[in-house]
Amino acid sequence: MIWSHADRLRFDRIIETLEKNFSIEMGSSYTPFEVLISTILSQNTNRDNTTKAFERLKEQFKITPQELASADLEEIKRCIKPAGLYNAKARRIRKVARIIWEQYDGDLSKILNLPTSEARNMLLSLPGVGRKTADVVLSFCTNKGTFPVDTHINRIAKRLRWVEEKAGYEEIRHFFEDMVSEKQRKKVHLVLIEFGRKVCRAKNPHCKTCPIREDCQNENICQ
DNA sequence: CTCCGGCGAG
DNA sequence: CTCGCTGGAG
């Protein structure tokens, strides 16, 4: 897909409008390992359930490779139950903790400090870490962030005709990485997620009150 | 492609 | 009660 100057202006105008309408907290004093674990918990899971599971896990364990590597599997399952898919997630969390503890001296930054594409590939080799999770960790824990594509981002990019309907993960990721500078990516990502949750929802989107309805070229969504 | 799953909105 | 939410692995 070819992008004209006008397309870029429209993209920038939309992002600017969304930033004014959706406040986000960029706080988070999470360690990279905590980001990794909470992102694994968040897979296929809404935010409330993810937060509940992470807090419960944090009550029982220090969220460190050392502590989780030797944790009892059933105990992890019990803690993270609210996130769903807990059998698979518990196994993956402990396995990831063991790999980081044994192969990286318990220091995830040994992966994150590598050049971006190497770091991404190392993350992808961990159990339970796919493209979205790897990109979230890179985006939130380094300055050379990639752009994570979750279902909100996927849906919004297609509704706004930024990418074609059949575009896959990597195509959408590259679109955003082309359009958004590295230091803006985290913020733009969070703003789009908020927009996707509050307004441009999967079901019953609030098109009538959408702040960017003038710039939306999708006529088939509004009820 | 299917399976894994608690949770809350409808 | 049903069902959509929402990624990775086999």
TrEMBL record:
Domain HhH-GPD: 41-198
Pfam families (alphabetical): HHH, HhH-GPD
Keywords: 4Fe-4S, DNA damage, DNA repair, Endonuclease, Glycosidase, Hydrolase, Iron, Iron-sulfur, Metal-binding, Nuclease
GO biological process: base-excision repair, AP site formation
GO molecular function: 4 iron, 4 sulfur cluster binding; DNA binding; DNA N-glycosylase activity; endonuclease activity; metal ion binding
InterPro entries named in the record: DNA_glycosylase, HhH-GPD_domain, HhH_base_excis_C, HhH_motif
UniProt record similarity statement: Belongs to the Nth/MutY family.
Protein name: Endonuclease III
